[in-house]
Amino acid sequence: MAKDEWIRAKVLKLETKWSKEYGMVILVEKMWQKLELHQIVDELYRRSPIEVPVEEALLCMVTNRLVDPRSKLSTYKWLDMVYALEWEKMELSHLYRTLDFLCENIKEIEEALFMKSRDLFSLDIDLVLFDTTSTYFEGKGPVGLAKLGYSR
User: Fold this and answer.
1) How many domains does the chain have?
2) Does residue 151 fall inside a structural domain?
3) Domain that holds residue 56
4) Beta partners for 137?
5) Predicted local distance difference test score (pLDDT) of residue 120
6) How much is the pLDDT for 72?
7) 129 occurs within a structural domain
8) Exposure class string for 42-79: b at 16+ Cβ within 10 A, else e
9) Model-wide pTM > 0.70
């Protein structure tokens, strides 16, 4: 039997028992470290009464958001498709408690991340854009440009 025939015969008999994504986890972890988010989150976590693995849960949710955005419940189910030892003991309640932590500390995280990315990329900031996915107006605005109420 020729070498290529032997390889084809063996490969055709292979069965996959399970497979999990791993490459994106590594990539996001490297970006996380480069931006020093672990230090930012750890400092805030030490001052917080929350007792769940906040950094791992945040990293998990950020990775999910970048790879396959889902709700928190679906993100929890998505964990079965991803290989990350730190996430094997993750519970759904950890994701929700981490959202509480994030809400309490979002301003400090955003400011620290902005300062870090500005320094990291040696940026001279002239313009900052923010998410206006869901906006609304209150009061009087420029005629024809804005009107009172919810606008998407």
Assistant:
1) 1
2) no
3) 16-124
4) 149
5) 59
6) 87
7) no
8) eebbeeeebebbbbbbbbbbebbeebeeeeeeebbebb
9) no
